[in-house]
């Protein structure tokens, strides 16, 4: 067994480790850490106020009210804030806020969103704290992310590093259900991406096996609709040369071929809704279908809706072409077409994105926190940062850790707000001092 003196030395070294980590921070960075920690109650109180305002995507007044609340937080930090209305696409609008620094360092784009998936009819409406967790609509996605962003910016202001930083913030009002056409709905974000050198997305942190992960990639999300048609008649004539296979069997052929021929790494595809019969239709919202028919009638129409997700734009093009080829083969006596809808592009893993994660891991090292490995992109969904990924290096997942997102009971881990804000404040301060390429 070890001697008492060895035990004492071991305990002493362990106690000194956090101080050794803090010693690697500059005085300004230490001030940021202290500010974030001391203002944690303020951050939680703001989160409660934001969560208790319903801002489901289609609650346009609620989304705008949350935008007003964010304006009130950003203007005292020196941001020029404007509201970009989105009535043209049937949505509320976006917040665009610009902080002019000294023009010498990298220009940062911070991304978040004002809306949630919980509309006014949802029974889940209220912030409820439960110890180190808090439940509420958008508590993690993405009101918690906006709170992290603000906590980091306040810490930068307190430490004097915000003054020289060139930062643009875009908080979209329809991230959960983008307006159409998407070119209009995301114009402000795309323009901001072209001006930036680094993009930081404040949606939620992902943990894998209890470990904080770095998100350098996000997959795309595209929806599709297949409409198959066939010759209708008495069921006893199915599969004859005169009547062919019928619309339902044509659709079944297509869906089966997708399952057999499409699989490849980083691709997922899903059939979410099917209707077939003598008559069939899908409602305008794309979420409900109706059909009528009889067992002794060959179906004249069959409709399916689904989605697919890819890691790169090249993969998106390749998968679309394969789907189109499968649809075009046609069973006897049938026809079919596939239509693709607007969606979210991919954020491919790039060397530039890995460099931003390396910078964040430098912050982790100096804070005495574990390194954040790259997250498998299959483990997170699509997001707004993908719209600028072709123009600027970026990193996703700077918001807090949460569980149960998009469902009643969504809960944010409150201590992660502080940790993420410390990371973000130091990362942004360091990046804003790096010379532009």
TrEMBL record:
The record's InterPro entries line, in alphabetical order, gives: ArgE/DapE_CS, Bact_exopeptidase_dim_dom, Peptidase_M20, Peptidase_M20_dimer, Peptidase_M20A
Q: Which residues does the UniProt record annotate as the domain Peptidase M20 dimerisation? A: 216-333
Signal peptide positions on this chain: 1-23
Provide the alphabetized UniProt keywords.
Answer: Carboxypeptidase, Hydrolase, Metal-binding, Protease, Signal, Zinc
If you read the UniProt record, what top EC class would you report for this enzyme, in one word? hydrolase
Q: Name one Pfam family in it.
A: Peptidase_M20
Q: Which GO terms describe its molecular function?
A: carboxypeptidase activity; metal ion binding
Annotated coiled-coil segments of the chain: none
Check the record and name the SUPFAM superfamilies matching this protein. Answer: Bacterial exopeptidase dimerisation domain, Zn-dependent exopeptidases
Q: What is this protein called?
A: Carboxypeptidase G2
Which organism is the protein's source?
Edaphosphingomonas haloaromaticamans
């Amino acid at each position: 067994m070890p001697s008492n003196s060895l035990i004492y030395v071991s305990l002493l070294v362990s106690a000194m480790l956090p101080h050794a980590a803090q010693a690697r921070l500059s005085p300004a960075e230490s001030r940021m850490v202290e500010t974030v920690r001391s203002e944690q109650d303020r951050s939680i109180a703001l989160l409660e106020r934001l969560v208790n305002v319903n801002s489901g995507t289609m609650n346009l007044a609620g989304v705008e009210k949350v935008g007003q609340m964010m304006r009130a937080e950003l203007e005292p930090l020196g941001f020029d804030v404007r509201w970009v209305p989105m009535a043209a696409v049937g949505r509320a609008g976006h917040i665009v806020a610009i902080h002019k620094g000294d023009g010498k360092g990298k220009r940062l784009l911070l991304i978040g969103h004002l809306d949630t998936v919980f509309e006014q009819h949802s029974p889940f409406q209220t912030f409820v704290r439960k110890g180190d967790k808090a439940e509420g609509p958008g508590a993690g996605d993405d009101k918690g992310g906006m709170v992290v962003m603000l906590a980091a910016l306040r810490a930068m202001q307190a430490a004097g590093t915000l003054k020289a930083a060139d930062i643009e913030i875009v908080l979209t009002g329809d991230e959960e259900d983008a307006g159409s056409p998407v070119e209009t709905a995301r114009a402000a974000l795309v323009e901001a991406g072209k001006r930036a050198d680094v993009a930081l997305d404040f949606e939620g942190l992902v943990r894998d096996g209890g470990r904080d992960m770095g998100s350098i990639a996000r997959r795309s999300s595209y929806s599709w609709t297949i409409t198959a048609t066939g010759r209708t008649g008495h069921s006893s004539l199915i599969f004859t040369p005169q009547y062919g296979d019928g619309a339902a069997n044509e659709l079944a052929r297509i869906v089966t071929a997708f399952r057999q021929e499409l699989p490849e790494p980083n691709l997922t595809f899903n059939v979410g809704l099917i209707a077939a019969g003598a008559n069939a239709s899908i409602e305008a919202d794309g979420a409900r279908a109706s059909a009528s028919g009889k067992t002794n009638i060959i179906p004249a129409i069959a409709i399916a809706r689904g989605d697919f997700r890819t890691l790169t734009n090249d993969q998106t093009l390749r998968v679309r072409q394969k789907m189109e080829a499968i649809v075009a083969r046609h069973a006897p006596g049938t026809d079919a077409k596939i239509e693709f809808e607007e969606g979210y592009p991919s954020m491919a893993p790039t060397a530039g994105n890995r460099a931003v994660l390396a910078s964040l891991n430098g912050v982790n090292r100096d804070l005495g926190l574990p390194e954040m490995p790259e997250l498998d992109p299959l483990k997170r969904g699509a997001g707004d940062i993908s719209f600028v990924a072709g123009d600027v290096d970026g990193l996703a997942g700077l918001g807090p850790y949460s569980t149960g997102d998009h469902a009643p009971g969504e809960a944010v881990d409150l201590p992660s707000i502080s940790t993420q804000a410390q990371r973000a404040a130091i990362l942004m301060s360091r990046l804003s001092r790096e010379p532009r390429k």
